[in-house]
Design goal:
The protein is an alpha/beta fold and 221 residues long. It contains nine helices and eight strands. It has one domain: TIM Barrel, CATH 3.20.20. Helix 2 links the parallel strand 1 and strand 2. Bound molecules: pyridoxal-5'-phosphate.
Amino acid sequence: MSIADARRNILDRIAVSAKRDGRRANDITLVAVSKQQSDERVQAMLETGQSVFGENRVQEAQKRWAHTFSNWRDKIELRLIGPLQTNKAVDACQLFDVIETLDREKLAKALVNAAEKTGKLPTLFVQVNIGEEEQKSGVVPADLDAFIEMLRNTYGIEPEGLMCIPPAALAAGPHFALLKKLATRNGLTKLSMGMSGDFETAIELGATHVRVGSALFGERP
Ligand SMILES: *Cc1c(COP(=O)(O)O)cnc(C)c1O
């Protein structure tokens, strides 16, 4: 399947799932996760008109979007979906439109300081460790309400939404449903959830952003 056909297929499936949830295809944003993909594949994806991309590493994203594809940078929305170290906060503020992985106070502080330097604070999502897994980053559900209150009251940060990666070995549905509940409870309207294997389930449970890599570009090397 060509990249354009793969994207068409995913967009069709998004439309079907959106309809099942009483929404329109346009209510869902397809984030093309280009991490580790070749320049050829990324170029082909750009030529389809795809305009939202996700990257999980700051340095790799800089190489791709500030150098190789810098001509396209202003035409796309770039989202950081991987963990962010505080010492990369300035770079991340400069490069990304959206950071989906705000998950600790130290990072909130670093981002506010970085925004002062760069003159720009990206849109922020809070990452939730929805399955409470030891190896995963994210705020655990029990701490989320207080974390968001702290962002609002101490740092003047108004997050736009929540993001999660459910445990690989368990059914994703209940985790997606919990993320939606946590968002609603905190007055947040955007939900980044669902990847190649489960984006349809995620949309039926309220996802507004699905992060799809391998099903769009092909397997990563
Ligand atoms: C890699 C990655 C994805 C995309 O995964 P696929 O299974 O290839 O669709 C989505 N979200 C995050 C946070 C990722 O790191």
